[in-house]
Design goal:
Dna Ligase, domain 1; 2 domains; 5-stranded antiparallel β-sheet; 28% helix; D-amino Acid Aminotransferase, Chain A, domain 1; 6-stranded antiparallel β-sheet; globular; alpha+beta
Length: 284
């Protein structure tokens, strides 16, 4: 079997990669995660054994992906992202090293899967691995296909301060899709929340642009209006919601966590959870 649903978990990193394994664990514990499925590491291994980009599609992969997509409405848009076996390690997150393809229709999912697989050979991913004392020669990649959350606001949160290690929740947030925060495209709003008292300290970011969905498909970067730039993108209520989610995930994981989240139509979703890296600068 080359395709499993996220609801089939919890699954191991060896089966689906680190990122997907984390999501299956969260769904198993009733955390709000967008629905989706995973093309397994077994499919990637078969793809490589058959010649990679120059070889045939592994076995029944096309049919299994088609069946998985049939569970969604025909108009559903998807986010397709890597889930390598070496991703989201405590010692190396591999954030931004592999490709993510946003806002694709069902007919575009297979090419997006191949694009994620191709990114496993990126020179910068191998350089990053070498810097952390790892070799990617035996690494495999799962690929996550999820219903895309049309986020009004999104970002990342940390259950410990990622620079100082202080026992407080740090939230970086901006308008639109969270890739603008994860990639470092914008200067986000920052909220520091005291774990004991829930007191919020806010630092207004410029939020100079936002990444949003285009009506015709795909994403676009647009300039943020002066009105939006000069006010916080999250209400106190939403800051506390993200704060509570981050602490709940820390308790589930049993270690400090780095969380990607999104808010759409007043619903808060967890998009990713990984061990926090306390060395270096804040996650970008």
């Amino acid at each position: 079997m080359y395709v499993v649903t996220l609801q089939d978990g919890p699954l191991s990193p060896e089966e689906v990669g680190g990122k997907a394994a984390s999501l299956t664990y969260l769904i198993h514990h009733q955390v709000a995660v967008p629905p989706g499925f995973v093309v397994t590491t077994h499919a990637h291994q078969a793809y490589l054994q058959d010649g990679g980009a120059s070889g045939p599609i592994p076995g029944d992969l096309n049919e299994e992906v088609r069946q998985a997509l049939s569970a969604f409405a025909p108009t559903t848009r998807f986010a397709v992202r890597s889930s390598a076996t070496f991703e989201d390690l405590a010692s190396a997150s591999f954030a931004g090293q592999y490709d993510t393809v946003l806002d694709v229709g069902a007919e575009e999912v297979m090419p997006a899967i191949f694009r994620c697989w191709a990114s496993a050979a990126n020179h910068h991913a191998h350089s990053y691995a070498a810097q952390h004392g790892l070799s990617l020669e035996k690494s495999s990649m799962g690929v996550i296909v999820q219903a895309l959350v049309p986020a009004e606001t999104a970002g990342v949160s940390f259950s410990l301060h990622p620079v100082s290690g202080a026992d407080e929740v740090v939230i970086n947030a901006a308008y639109g899709l969270g890739e603008s925060v994860v990639s470092g495209m914008v200067t986000p709003d920052t909220f520091i929340v005291d774990k004991a008292t829930s007191r919020i300290e806010g630092l207004l970011g410029d939020k100079e642009a936002m990444l949003r969905l285009r009506p015709e498909g795909g994403t676009e970067e647009v300039e943020t209006s002066e009105e939006l730039r000069t006010r916080f993108c999250l209400s106190d209520r939403d800051v506390i919601r993200v704060h509570h989610l981050t602490l709940a995930l820390e308790r589930l994981a049993g270690y400090p966590v780095d969380v990607e989240w999104a808010i759409a139509e007043d619903s808060l979703y967890c998009l990713q959870m990984r061990p926090i890296a306390l060395k270096g600068v804040m996650h970008a």
